Amino acid sequence: MKKLITSMILLACFATASLAGNAESAEKDAVREVIESAYVEGFQNLGGREMIEAGFHPTFVMVLNRGGNLVDLPLARMIEITEQRQQNPEYQHVPVTGKILDIDVTGNAAMVKLELWREGRLLFTDYMGLYKFEDGWKIFNKLYHQH
Prior knowledge:
By secondary structure, the protein is α+β, with helices and mostly antiparallel strands. It is 43% helix and 41% strand.
């Protein structure tokens, strides 16, 4: 009888752990989709305003380190840069590939570490923060290292 109860308890623990793992995996997949769609394709590969706005929180800010001085780049300016590039016939876009190195999710908060590559060359390592809202995951900040 004790073996049966012990076995049932262990089975319940494994089942609970498995369900938690599946939920975490689903959240990581959702975060990955936002990064790939809104950031890599929307911003980096000039997909445009709609793609960007779908995955970024309106208060998003990128923090740039310019020789020891921190400079904010808000979402509106990022969209403006994208639109200027799209409309400039002289701008020749070379696609960027994103390689996600890590996604860490805790509740409604997530951090993503990703590399951006162009033509086999590592350009940036980005660190992006996301929060989950009623309408899904949204990127709210970014800092990076340029290689």
